[in-house]
């Protein structure tokens, strides 16, 4: 994603726009299935580190009341919603730690055989 955002090629811009559109589309579908949306949370690599992607996704999600505070978004604040918006958060994750925690609790394959 970083390479696409840094590129001036029209295809790169289109790829980023398509990605953001699909994330927003799936968010809308899930919020419909859940009968609403209480908050939007960005996490993991792109969600934590890409202000332009967060901004574009939020731009597609104005209809349920999501508006980012662009200054907070650019800074990467934990809360990036504009006043009057549904809550929008950035939550830092560490996938490797979560995998390690779950792996510790797996049964020993050798002793199970």
From TrEMBL:
InterPro entries: Aliphatic_acid_kin_short-chain, ATPase_NBD. The keyword Transferase applies. GO terms for molecular function: kinase activity. Keywords: ATP-binding, Kinase, Nucleotide-binding, Transferase. It comes from the Bacteria. It holds the Pfam family Acetate_kinase. The keyword Coiled coil does not apply. Belongs to the acetokinase family. PANTHER family: ACETATE KINASE. This is Acetate kinase. It comes from Rhodobium gokarnense.
